[in-house]
Write a structure and sequence with these properties.
Blueprint (H helix, E strand, L loop, with lengths): L1 E3 L2 E8 L10 E2 L3 E3 H4 L20 E10 L13 E8 L6 E4 L5 E8 L10 E4 L2 E11 L5 E4 L2 E12 L4 E5 L5 E10 L2 E3 L3 E7 L4 E10 L1 E4 L3 E6 L12
Parallel strand pairs: 3-5, 4-5, 5-6, 6-8, 7-9, 8-10, 9-11, 10-12, 11-13, 12-14, 12-15, 13-16, 14-17, 15-18, 16-19
Antiparallel strand pairs: 1-18, 2-17
């Protein structure tokens, strides 16, 4: 058992949306995509998708979404999501895109440890996001923090399997930034990484003011990893 206290990562490398004001509330009990149809013939990859909402509450009251590995992925874009279990998504489970002020808590995610692209949370172009008191067993990033994101707080998170909490910037030579990320009292069990920043060669931007503290690692391959040549197999690819 390793314990990492007050690890601070700051990286500069060579290599942003608000939601309209509405208030809705819904309660989800149990859904199985096999019962309702994957709609794969329409190439619909997103099962739950909410755009441009401010003040949304989704309270599942301990309900379950089971994708059974079908082609529909479970995503949610919103402001307050709590008490929800999700399993067997073929892709990312919850996406927060273009949101300001979202609170996500008491989420239980379970996907096979070798399932690719099954991120627990995908965050992009968002700010003031809090994810807390959740268990995320995935085959990919526990939490993926992408460009345009700031003031992201992950507290009391259990990451099981997968690649840990990752920041990903600069893909396709884009100019992206991430800043003010704070992870506290998070546990990484059987993950490839704890905290990771990965950047794609040729991109522009920065990742800064990123802090992890009171982190527990158990059977994790890398506690902290910064990779500025992500997805590069040979040196000739960057020359």
């Amino acid at each position: 058992m390793q314990r990492l206290m007050s690890g601070i990562l700051i990286l500069g490398f060579i290599s942003a949306a608000f939601c309209l004001k509405h208030n809705y509330e819904t309660q989800i009990k149990y859904f199985n995509v096999m019962d309702y149809g994957g709609m794969a013939q329409l190439m619909i990859q997103i099962w739950i998708q909410i755009f441009n909402i401010n003040g949304l509450t989704i309270d599942a009251d301990g309900g379950i979404i089971d994708g059974n590995g079908g082609r529909n992925a479970e995503h949610a874009e919103g402001q307050h999501v709590k008490s929800l279990s999700m399993s067997n998504s073929p892709e990312a489970h919850i996406a927060l895109i273009g949101c300001d002020g979202a609170l996500v808590s008491h989420i239980n995610i379970h996907s096979p440890p070798k399932s690719s692209n099954t991120d627990g949370f995908d965050i992009a172009n968002s700010k003031n996001i809090v994810i807390e008191d959740s268990t995320l067993a995935t085959g990919d990033d526990c939490i993926a923090i992408n460009g345009g994101s700031s003031y992201i707080n992950a507290t009391r998170i259990f990451c099981i399997g997968g690649h840990g909490i990752s920041g990903s910037l600069g893909r396709n030579k884009s100019n992206e930034t991430v800043e003010e990320v704070y992870g506290q009292n998070c546990s990484f069990i059987g993950t490839t990484n704890g905290a990771r920043i990965k950047t794609w060669p040729g991109g522009l931007g920065y990742a800064r003011k990123i802090t992890f503290e009171e982190i527990i690692l158990q059977d994790a391959q890398n506690s902290i990893i910064i990779n500025q040549y992500y997805n590069i197999k040979t040196l000739s690819e960057v020359l």
